[in-house]
Structures are given as structure tokens and as C-alpha cells.
Here is the input.
Amino acid sequence: MYPLHREREQPIFSARAHVFQIDPATKRNWLPASKHAVTVSFFYDASRNVYRIISVGGTKAIINSTVTPNMTFTKTSQKFGQWADSRANTVYGLGFSTEQQLQQFAEQFKEVKEAARLAREKSQERYELANPALNIAAPQELSDERHSPPLLSVNGPGEEKLFRSKSAEVELTVEKERVKKMLSEGSMCEINLEAELFTLQDSNAKLVAALQEANGSVEQWKQQLAEYQVETDRLREQVAELEAQLGHPAAAAHTDKEELSRSLEELEALLSAKDQEIHSLQSKKTDVGELTREREEAIQRLQELERRNTELESQIASTEKTLASSREEQKKAEVDVRHFLEALDVKICDLNDLRQSLANLVDK
Here is the structure.
């Protein structure tokens, strides 16, 4: 059934809006026909040469309005417009998110209204060309009926004939109404099914787009994890070099420590920026089982990296403590050497005095 509908009736314009209907009791207040914004579309039925406005909320058609040349779409505010449908005996209202969307819908309504007018004129012209003697035959028939005697009789058979003719007309009228009702019910079912099909197609397209976006986010996370691993390996190498340089002069150790601190600050800034990106990606990500599992794995890897960074920071702190103790020991050694030199100077002075005394004794 769907392919037949898609061949016969095609969407020509779609927009999202909140749908309202006028309150039938007060004819003043608006009643919301949808809980949230829904898709409102213009359709063209090529087989019947008519234009319709259709919108579906869930599985129910909340708008099914055939556009006629007498309809007028009125903009009552910057983001709200309405039109009256005499066939549905109601007034529809649409609330858009932007003024531009309202303007586009109003222009499309005007174009469809003009197309409906042209279609009606062409249909009337074809009907008149197909029935050229219709306007002439009618007065003749009316004249024949006017001059013909009335179908009345006094005897029984004439009355029975008239009664049967009226009964046949009543039965024919009832049959026509039943057929019309069946056709209208069938048309409504087709409309609902077709509108549901377009809604499902729209939802499927949104889901596919969300999945593609989520897959792109996962690839970004994987790339970020690889960068973190490279940075962690580099920090490990720097820590190993720093540990190897503990015995070198203090100036070289201080330079390496500054470089390592600068690298750690850069890594922390990078981690902060990537964490913000991950949070923004998580807010956009669709709740899909596989993607959620990959996100959890990425979070676990990030936690592992944070743990490793903490270990590196503790190693750096212990290295700094070792450097400080080495400096203290060096200072202590310098003080001891200075004391030793001072004591040695004192002993040299004493020896000089003793030597002078010996020289004096020898002279005597």
C-alpha cells in the first residue's frame, strides 16, 4: 500500500511546529493538538489533483486539511499563524520556533492555494468541454417536465408505482451514503498509514545521523587515548632520565625538573581540554548499547591514565625530595670542609710559631 501512496501523493514541503485547534465550545481559546513540535507537510495528490496539509502525532493524524482557493493563512504574531478549514469545521494554528520558518510556511501556503485555484479552473474547463450539451439539455428536460402531466392516479396500480419509485430513490440514496462513508474511512486509514510512514522515515534518518555522530565521537576518543598513552610514555622516559641524573650537578637536575614540571602542566591542560570535549560529546551522544559500552571503556582508560599520572607525580615528588636531601648533604659537606680548612690554618699558624721559637733557641 505504501508504494501506491508514494506514487499518487508526494510531499512538497515540510516544517516542524506546535499544532493547535480552536476550542469548539468558546471559538476563542486554543487547544494544543500535540505535546511537542511535529512535522507539518504539504502533499500533492496527482490522481485527484488536490493539495493537502497533513501532520501526524504518534499514530493519529492531527491535521488533514484540503487546501482550497478560499482558504487564507493569517500570521497573528511573529511566530504564529492560523487558517480556517470549513470542511473540518475547525481552525488550525501553528507555532514555529523562528519567524523565518513561519514566513516560509506562509509563502508555501500561498503558492499551494494558487495552484489549487488553477487546478480547479482547469478541472471546470475539462468538465465543460467533456459535457457541451449539459447546459442546453437541462432547460429542455425542465420544459418537458413542466408540460407533462403529474404522475398521479386514482386507482391502486398508479399509487403502487409511485411508492415503488420513491422507495428505490431512498434505497439508492442510502447506498450512496454508505459507499461515501466507506470511501472516507478508507481514505483516513490510508492517510494515517502514510503519515505514520513519513514519521518513521524521519525518525530513522535522525537515528542514523545520531549514530554516525556517535561513531565519529568514538573515533575521536580513541585518538585522544592514543595521544595520552604517547604522552605518558614520554613522561616515564623523563622520570627515568631524572632518576639517572640524580648524581649529576644540581643545576642540571634543576633544569630537568623545570622541564618535567612544564610538561606536566601541558599534560594537565590537555587533559582538561579533552575532558571538556568528552563531556560535550557525551551530552550529544545517543543512548545506544554498544556506544555506551565503548564510552565506559574510554572512561576506564582515562581513569587508568589518571592513576598513572598520579604515580608519576608521586615519583616526581620523591625525586624532588631526594634532590633536596642531596643539596642538604652537599651543603653539610661544604661546611665540614670549611671547618677542616679553618682548623688546618690554625695548626699551620701553631707550627710557624713553634718553628720561630726553635729558631730563636738555636740562635742563643
About this structure: Residues 1-7, 133-164 have pLDDT under 50 and may be disordered. The helical segments are 2-8, 99-130, 134-147, 156-244, 250-284, 289-363. Strands lie at 9-22, 30-32, 38-45, 50-57, 60-67, 74-75, 80-85, 90-95. The CA atoms of residues 215 and 291 lie 8 Å apart.
